Amino acid sequence: MPQSSRPRLGPRPRPAVAWRSALGRATREALSVVSPVSCAGCRAPDVALCDDCRRRLVPEVTRVDLPDGLPVFAGLAYAFEVRGVVLAFKNGGRVRLAEALAPALAAALEACARVVTAEAERADAGADAPPDLPVLVVPVPPSRRGRRRRGYDPVDLVLRRLGLTVGRRVLVPTATAGGGQKGRDRQQRLRAREGSLRCRRDLGGMHVVLVDDVVTTGGTLLEACRAVRARGAVVVGAACLAATPSWSGSTA
User: Fold this and answer.
1) Model-level pTM?
2) Backbone phi and psi for residue 112, each to the nearest 5 degrees, phi listed first
3) Where in the sequence is the domain holding 86, given as residue range(s)?
4) Which end of the chain offers a freer environment for a tag, N or C, measured as fewer CB atoms within 10 Å?
């Protein structure tokens, strides 16, 4: 068949467009060699977060309670691909994953707010006018060592993505913070967290909702409760990105 009579599928690309497309492909191929991209959840190549793993980040809120009865709401189960995404966000420097994880924390906060409101209404049943009590959202900070290693605060990044006004730096790590938790059993983790946080503000009369990334033993949240209660706060609940399967509770 003569060259001029060959069929052509679609319009012929303009030279400039074709050149830019070829350059883009070449650039992506070069970057994949220098800094390979893989899915944060399943390690599939050439994509930061694949469609399957993105679907696994659709929130499914569960409620777990701390030993003192404090309700804690988690947006995701910390296992399998979800665990990989959270770890890539927390420890792998992949800060753009905050956008994909933000809906999970938002759902946990909404579930916490519903329960807190319902309990307040029950407590005020029969009153002429229930008091409108302010609720302060207080993020749990990373340890000093963790902050230096990462260069950022994962919880703060997600909260900023949600556009929430929160009590930043209400809680700060102390010099006695126990460091990393990996490899420790439950009791060791609980002991390591004792005295690791300090509340910098007087919170007398304030109702507080704590926010953390992952609840495992509950030790970090218990320590955060101790610190803010010592400054007069009433802790009404907590919200987290995810909870480990050992903390799986009822669907909220």
Assistant:
1) 0.78
2) -65, -40
3) 57-125+132-251
4) N
